[in-house]
Amino acid sequence: MPSQLIEKYFRTNSLPHIWCPGCGNGIVLRAIVKAIDNIGIDQNNVCVVSGIGCSSRASGYLDFNTVHTTHGRALAFATGIKLANPNLHVIVITGDGDCAAIGGNHLIHAARRNIDITTIVFNNNIYGMTGGQYSPTTPTGDKGTTAPYGNIDANFDLCELAKAAGATYVSRSTVYGANMIIKQVEAGIKNRGFSFIETLTTCPTYYGRKNKKGDPVDLIRHLKEISVNKTEYEKLPEEKRMGKIVIGELYRGERPEYTDEYIKIIESFKGEI
Amino acid sequence: MKTLEKLNVEENLCKGCGICVAFCPKNVLEIKSGKVHIKNLEDCIECGLCELRCPDYAIYLVFRG
Fold it and tell me: Could you tell me the domains of chain A?
């Protein structure tokens, strides 16, 4: 029997999950349910929406209201769910390809609307499920099956994108520091507005193997080495910032929330009928 | 006060990735025949890092009280 936490929030009859040995997705998923457990919100009052990809298989393992939607459209479905039932805690689980490539437009518009959805991106720098094609977050120069000589694209900084598009909570963490994921998901759920949490995870099967980055443990150690907390990063001299990834709470803002504004419009007409 | 009842391993969930073994600060765990195995429980400091980072929910601490 798995732990109490897993028993409570997972459809344990579908475990073990399909993720490869050493895949970081399971670490992020546990951190998400731990955050929900810490806040103490009712399981029936949570809706988890996911798109397509390795990460998006997560919804199938969770014992909440769950929707496994089409590629890139998790945020579009989630927007509808949230508008139909504004009291629901809507959580979107998506991958880097799902969120930044196919669903890129949905991401910027969900952030622009500041709709109260907590989006957690499992960023493993590659399309794992379909065979290791490079994604918008594959670092420049790194390899994928579709970039055998190295990727020439500049990689997306998803947190900057979400912030610029209007998200009111933006943070980044890694599977090495899974406790940070828990704290950030809690903060994201509590934020009344669009919360964007990028979690850097590992794909030993495709990204790790294609780029000769070693086994699952090496990949997690690598994440530890390249990530640096925001406050620490700001103190670093320019030459030491190269190649570092900033983690921690990156942005907090205050703007009207979308469903609140929508309800205000409905209320404004009630008196006239 | 919470006391450790046991460090539980779910063998059928373990995929033998070795993450828990590598990040255990007290070298309590090892991989045997492709699965995690508790080597010396007496050294365990109940930090829970194995449970935190196990991607397969195969290892966890059980507390009493």
Answer: 18-267 (3.40.50.970)
The reported pTM is 0.96
Taking only the tens place, the pLDDT of each residue in A57-69 is 999 999 999 999 9
Which residues contact residue A265 at a Cβ distance below 8 angstroms, ignoring those fewer than 6 apart?
A: none
| ipTM confidence score | 0.95
CB–CB of B18 and A175 under 8 A? no
Give chain A positions within 8 Å (CB) of B11. none
**Partner A contacted by B48 (CB < 8 A):** no
Give the one of B52, B56, B60 whose C-beta lies nearest to A179's C-beta.
B52
Residue B35 structure tokens: 């699965």
pLDDT digits (tens, 9 = 90+) for B5-55: 789 999 999 999 999 999 999 999 999 999 999 999 999 999 999 999 999
Domain spans, chain B: 3-64
Packed helices A104-113 and A74-84: angle between N→C axes, nearest 10 degrees:
30
A-B C-beta contacts closer than 8 Å:
70
Q: How many residues would you count in chain B?
A: 65
